[in-house]
Design brief:
The chain has one domain (6-202): P-loop containing nucleotide triphosphate hydrolases (Rossmann fold). Strands 1, 2, 3, 4, 5, 6 and 7 form a seven-stranded mixed β-sheet that branches. It has six helices and seven strands, in the order ββαββαβααβαβα. It is 32% helix and 24% strand. It is an alpha/beta fold. The structure holds guanosine-5'-triphosphate (GTP) and magnesium ion. One of its GO terms (molecular function) is GTPase activity.
């Protein structure tokens, strides 16, 4: 039996009568266990927070639709990846087709900041954009609402610079601090890259050789 499955990736679906584009973006939320990944996804997609800790097994995902501009609708898929090491062997499967990632640590647990590098290396080893470049990453220092012996901002800034992380935010899923802003940063980044790609492709097309259409037919 032969069947062909088309995988939709970051695709453009015209909404027929409105002349609108509908895009699908897959984003990853990664970082050590207990740092607040599920809480961030829940805050962003449902506007809710719970102080109960329920470990994520494998991965989970939630969708939020954004009316980005009058011509563009974005279906944002947030993949909430389990932080516990025992699920680590599965990450390659979950990372597939992701366009961006939020890397989270718990500002009150320094060990979770020390793990950020490991998560980043693992991510970049396993996924690149079709042109070979790294996917955009934002770093989130979560749980800023609780008492913490702070990791100095300079240390975080330095880490981002040394590891080509575009931006970082101090966040709280509990008190809804900077969650929307951080995700928005990633969406803007992905859109910017798409536009640059389109411009580059159109330049390539204009510079490329001109093929004359021939009257050919294909036999299979
Ligand atoms: N005070 C405070 N607690 C938070 C915040 N975000 C998450 N938590 C709490 O931290 C605990 C762990 O949060 P989760 O979102 O389940 O952590 P996770 O990163 O998804 O953990 P895994 O699924 O095991 O990888 C829960 O008890 C949350 O309520 C926050 O911003 N502030
Ligand atoms: Mg979780």
């Amino acid at each position: 039996m032969s069947s062909q499955r088309t995988i939709r990736r970051d695709s453009d679906v015209p909404l027929s009568n409105l002349g609108q584009k509908e895009l699908l973006f897959k984003f990853l939320i990664i970082g050590d266990y207990g740092v607040g990944k599920t809480a961030i996804v829940r805050r962003y997609t449902e506007g809710k927070f719970s102080s109960n800790y329920k470990i994520t097994i494998g991965a989970d995902f939630a969708i939020k639709t954004l009316d980005w501009d009058p011509h563009t609708k974005i279906n944002l898929q947030l993949w909430d990846i389990a932080g516990h090491e025992r699920f680590g062997y599965m990450t390659r499967v979950y990372y597939k087709y992701a366009l961006a990632a939020a890397l989270v640590f718990d500002i009150s647990r320094i060990a979770t900041f020390q793990s950020v590098k490991k998560w980043l290396v693992d991510l970049r080893e396993k996924i690149t954009l079709p042109d070979g470049s790294n996917i955009p990453v934002v770093l989130l220092a979560n749980k800023c609402d609780i008492e913490h012996s702070a990791i100095p901002n300079e240390q975080i800034v330095k880490f981002c610079k040394e590891n080509s992380i575009g931006s970082w935010y101090i966040t709280s899923a509990k008190e809804n601090v900077n969650i929307d802003e951080a995700i928005r940063y990633l969406v803007e980044n992905v859109i910017k890259t798409r536009v640059e790609d389109q411009i580059r492709d159109s330049i390539k097309l204009r510079d490329g050789p001109v093929f004359q259409e021939k009257n050919t037919c294909c036999k299979i």
